[in-house]
Amino acid sequence: MAAQKINEAHEHISKAEKCLKTSFTKWKPDFDSAASEYSKAAVCFKNAKQYDQAKDAYLKEAECHTENKTYPYHDLLFHAAKAIEQAGMMMKEQKKMPEAIQYIEKACMMYMENGTPDTAAMALDRAGKLIEPINLEKAVDLYQKAAGVFENEDRLRQAVELLGKASRLLVRLKRLDEAAVALQKEKNMYKEIENFPMCFKKTTAQVLVHLHRADYVAADKCVRESYSLPGYSGSEDSVAMETLLQGYDEQDEDQVFRVCNSPLLKYMDNDYAKLAISLRVPGGGKKKAPAAPQGGASGAQTANDEEDEYEGGLC
């Protein structure tokens, strides 16, 4: 089956090369037909799992589109970008992620030039997912670029989702100063689209990030500012943050532990939940003295006193 597909691919390449040849009777290359043949060849190579050859065919298809003067440039640019993105996916199949991302980023630039920013942003998002398991820094860059494209198009719901991905990865990378900035931007966007419950969650994430930065003032400010959000005052989120900040300020290790291990924080996104359970108060903190157990030493003493009082009987 694979051999048959490879033979078909080579037949399509031969036809493509013939389309590009000129002669006395054919003055101009037929780029349109050549692009179609290279595209068919690429699919055949892909089906035969010959990914390097498929990549080369897609790149030749893209070249034919950009050289074609028959149709409007912007239309052809879109098709060229699609072919280059597919070349990137062939690199992905071979686990050559850096090369894959290079092709996808190039395609995204062409989508932008073509006037299809949504397609560019979605391709950047896909690229981020591809590179995330092996290069978190590059994934952050791609997610932020994608968010920026959506933001410029006033598509804030899509933008804020991608910003959220970048923020979580910044926390994982321990780039907490940048994470704090990204979280504030997320919160502002959620406020703009009036998703106030998500603003509450972002405030909690901000407090955890700022306390890990040892910046109590910034953490407190985030909570104070959030009281202007409808429904924040008296909410589970605000009560938890007030309790956490009080415990942190008073170096009460037990109080901080209780809040950080509460379901509200433990079931946040994993990167923020890890911040919660690893939070420590300054200077090692202090623990409250445990209450005397019932029936313990003090309880026994009270019982003895009562026995002494009645030891001589009632008279």
Q: Biggest β-sheet: count, sense, barrel?
A: none
Low-confidence stretches: 289-315
Counting DSSP H or I runs of 4 or more residues, the number of helices is 16
Question: Per the principal axes of the C-alpha atoms, what is the gross shape?
Answer: elongated
Strand elements, count: 0
Mean of residue pLDDT values: 89
DSSP helix fraction: over 70%
Describe the protein:
By secondary structure, the protein is an all-alpha fold. The chain contains 16 helices and no strands.
Name the descriptors.
315 residues, disordered C terminus, single chain, 3 domains, Serine Threonine Protein Phosphatase 5, Tetratricopeptide repeat, elongated
Outline the secondary-structure elements.
Layout: H1 2-20, H2 31-47, H3 51-67, H4 73-93, H5 97-114, H6 117-131, H7 136-152, H8 156-172, H9 176-192, H10 196-212, H11 216-226, H12 236-249, H13 253-260, H14 263-266, H15 270-277, H16 297-309
Helix pairs in contact: 1-2, 2-3, 3-4, 4-5, 5-6, 6-7, 7-8, 8-9, 9-10, 10-11, 11-12, 12-13
Biased composition (Acidic residues): 304-315
Coiled coil: 166-193
Membrane topology: Peripheral membrane protein
In short:
By secondary structure, the chain is mostly helical.
